Amino acid sequence: MSTTKYIYGLGRRKGAVARARLIKGKGSVTINDKDAKDYLCQNKALLAELTDPLALANKQKEFDVTVRVSGGGLAGQVDAIKLAISKALTIEAPDLRPVLKKAGLMKRDPREKERKKYGLRSARKKEQFSKR
């Protein structure tokens, strides 16, 4: 059994659920057993966004991040991972909470896809009205 100490955080966004573990290390990020660069298809914008919480806390080289993420698309998954990392960081260092909160990293974005209603084409789109 592993005795490695880690800090855990959970994040959600749209349909994505991310469970992040922060372990003392050199700063590697692993998502679903793949390197973050490979998982995010070398997308520099998403990679930069992913490490925002660690960059704000100046702890990029202090922790290895291991993430399990499921559901949603890449953008939703990245937002879920950011929230999970932020929550884990606040457990480790509660004094970081105001900094992360001011940056908007501690709030779950509640917007979800609206369900399709019967009799309609999608959630709100209707058939074109014909007067005659």
What does this structure look like?
The protein is of the alpha+beta class and 132 residues long. It has one domain (7-102): 2-Layer Sandwich (Ribosomal Protein S5, domain 2). Helices cover 31% and strands 22% of the residues. The chain has a 5-stranded mixed beta sheet with strand order 1-2-5-3-4. Helix 2 packs parallel to helix 4. The termini are far apart. The model has no long low-confidence stretch (mean pLDDT 92).
- Tell me the strand percentage band: 15-25%
Number of domains: 1
So what's the CATH class?
Answer: Alpha Beta
**What gap, in angstroms, lies between the N and C termini?**
74 Å
Task: Output the CATH topology.
Answer: Ribosomal Protein S5, domain 2
| Overall morphology | elongated
Secondary structural class: alpha+beta
Mean pLDDT: 92
Instruction: Write down how many β-strands occur, each being a DSSP E stretch of 2 or more residues.
Output: 5
Q: In DSSP terms, counting alpha (H) and pi (I) runs of 4 or more, how many helices?
A: 5
Percent helix = 25-40%
Radius of gyration: 19 Å
Q: What is the H/E order?
A: EEEEHHHEHH
CATH architecture: 2-Layer Sandwich
**Residue ranges: pLDDT <50 for 5 or more in a row?**
none
Largest sheet: 5 strands, mixed
Strand order of the largest sheet: 1-2-5-3-4
